[in-house]
Amino acid sequence: MKTSDVIVIGGGLAGLMAAAVAVGRGQKVTVLTYGSGSLPLASGAIDFINAKSPEAAIKDLPAHHPYKKIGTKALDSAAKFLIDIAAKANLPYNGKFGAQIPIVTAVGTLKYSALVPESMDASTLADKKKIFVVGITGLKDFYPKMIADNLKKIFPDKTFEVIQIDLNLLGGRDITCMDAAQLLTDNEQQLANELKALNATADDAIILPPILGIMGNFSRDVVKTQLRAEIFETTCLPPSPPGMRLQRAFMKFLQSSGVKFFENSKVVRGVVEGKKVTGVVVENVVREKIFPAKKVILATGGFYSGGIKMRDFDNPREPIFDLPVFFPEGAENWSNPQLFSDKPQGFALTGIFTNENLNPIDKDGKVLYDNLHVVGANLGGCDKIFERSAGGIAIASAYKAATI
Amino acid sequence: MSDKTQAIFTGDRCLSCTSCMANCPVMAAVKEYRGPKLVGPAHGRMHFSQEDVEDTLNYCSNCKSCDRACPSGVAVSTLNMLQRAEYYKKHEHLRSEDMLAHGERMAKLIRKLPFGATFSNLGMSIGKTLGVFSALGIAGERNMPAYASTSFKDGFPKIKQPSSSKKVVMFTGCYINDNEPQVGQAFVKVMNANGYEVLIDKQFNCCGSPLVVTGFLDEARQHADNNISRILDWKRQGIPVVTPCTSCSLMLKEEYHELFGEEQFHEAATNVYDAFEFLEILQERGEFNSNLKPLNQKLLYHVPCHLKSQAIGLPAQDILEEIGGVKVQTADAGCCGISGNYGFRKDKYEISMKIGAKLFERVKQTDFDKVISDCGTCRMQIHHGTDIKPCHPIEILAKAYQ
To answer: How far is the CA of B4 from the CAs of A339, B251, B361, in angstroms?
Structure first.
């Protein structure tokens, strides 16, 4: 087995980003994944932090927060890099670190994100007069009337019209947004005809579930060019076409750049010599295989994805390198029973602490391995869901780890 | 190990995250299939406790994309195959299913007749023209794989091998034995060049993969019991079992245990290697013969699904790139669609071609000297979809030892 310059463990947003950045710098990269990663389950929009002025908010974070280790420089670079990768796959993204771009959610609220697929960027919605909300016959978990009713609360002066169109998608299973997007790929004309029949003008907007194809922006381009009104895709329940489009954009770049990408490859431990990791061990059903590496990026997804496990209640563990895991002391600090309150969840702080190179450190701040870098949801010390920082931490930490 | 990998114990790990749905090639091709999440772990819970038929179960091709997509280790496809077996306890098989499941039995019968292979090939092309296969439920668009005039095992004694104290037993697989013996001959040549003498074991039978996917699970179990006892016998003698067929190696290494769950199945599996996996282990020990003649070839590599599932990297790519002038590019175009005998079924032919379309496009549009793939049915499908005949990577390596 040839030695890789970089092995990335994990194929979620952080793992794909780290691999893309590393191969973009001419390195020989191997990605080892177990499961298809977070992107098919994600909205495709990337948030850095939920704050009116993100730069000031990040400045005020405590010293142990991942952003303090990553530094603000990587935030801009990571955002630019991601937009560039997506653009290569005809998947235009809008935004930058600090941007606040509105997206219509599947329940008809507005959510503000920093990096947004162009198809979801609802910045101009506020300027429109009439808004059509389009439901698709048979599509589950998408309620156009609820969306219209909720949007009406935000935009009371606008006219809303709820439309139901039948694209003949039924005749098998219940239809998800992914199904509709797959069925409409290279088969967009019927949808375009139905939307044309609305006679919507340039002053109007059409809101759709995210069904405009599964690859890049190709299907959207076909429909968009035939309409005068702007069309906006909402978010949806998984499997999520916008997340899948971003995953495919990354995969296209990795494959064309010669990254070795091995699925079903569960890494069980590292091979270490003192403070150096020299490789990782993959366990398949009958034997183990060593993948040698000069550098390893640990993007295994933290608490929610098996990157950190907790068999015993107060003893969370990082299963590959047995890295020390930070967690709040005292069971009473673990959970906040008010799920939607303005306070974070204690348990969500669980994770690995690092130095500024994202090397894992122990309680005393001592670096454990100097060519191992921890990225994404593995990083401890903040509730990424509460802060809405998961995506930003993932891409910025991956960018930094891959450029060190 | 036992509970960890036996499929029936993995269903409850499902979190309904839908990763499997996002990666299922059959779901992307047809709207009828309810998909791996619902048919595998969700419906599986019901099905094993009471009679409850899931109409779309027969759409699963067992390509195992769902298993690889699953972050929680659910053996989704094997849960589907177990349910299929339940279904056929109370329902009759189609004639086509019986035929497609029993290729080994058919080949044995034919080889007992004088000129049996010639006449049956002739019969298959006449049968195809007359629409007999189509009437039986087999895709009339396809050529049935032609039998080689002499099977690999029948021709094996005539192969001159240097004797060696280092030996491997070759598990030939049905397709290499009956249809492409040249792959077996290339395998022997490569092993000889690496100082190994190749043995064959005529008591091995079909690994059982075609039986499992068509719901003949009891018969598959008999094959498993027989093959496992042979593999354990070789293990006791310290002789590894190596196969150049990726679906056979996956069945022997992993699926027997997933399906039937006995500890000795796992123990036997530790003595089984995919061909290039074995060669790469030799290379790591410094025992690989790297005296290779340059070939100057650009190869397009379609990696079979059943190789991806084995989590052994891509040893064929790494080893072939040791040959001077050889560059291996992976096709990265997903499943070829045939998935064993799935694409041979009349009602699945179109699905199979739709799934393979991306790969066919890639093969047609890429500049290369040869397409390679470790799996026999993948090679058939690529040939059928593009008119370009691929070969097994071991055939390329054998050429470099000439």
So the answer is: 34, 17, 39
